[in-house]
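Training component of the fellowship. As part of building independent skills, the fellow (R.M.) carried out the full modelling exercise for a liganded target. The chosen ligand was copper (II) ion. The inputs are recorded below so that the supervisory panel can assess the work.
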Amino acid sequence: MKKSISIMAITFAAGFLFVQQAQAHAHLKSSEPVAKSELAASPSALTLSFTEDLEASFSGVELKDSKGSVVKTGKAALSPDSKSVLVVPVSSPLKAGGYEVDWHALSVDGHKTKGSYNFTVK
Ligand SMILES: [Cu+2]
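Fellow's submitted model of the complex:
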């Protein structure tokens, strides 16, 4: 009984440390278009919300079509409302097809993160 309690305590402490560390970086919280969504029309911008404030000059996205070709977008900038939100204008309407958003971010605490997600324009 005593042993199982101490194992639980260790597991809990390890989980807590992991959460603390994970929270310290800019992770993607949500996006617009939503990951894996199917859109009826081209979005006018990509909006990525992160868990931390970002350094704009070292944060951005690469938009790729289903063939992996890079699609030209406007310059990524922080939202005027929040330094943790990155907005990328979609300069010319996206054709029907699948798209991948490869994002990279530098949070104000100096940590780099990256990831990707997909959406489809019908
Ligand atoms: Cu960090």
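The panel noted the following from the submitted structure. Residues 39 and 121 are 5 Å apart (CA to CA). The pocket of copper (II) ion is lined by residues 24-25, 107, 109, 111 (CB under 6 Å).
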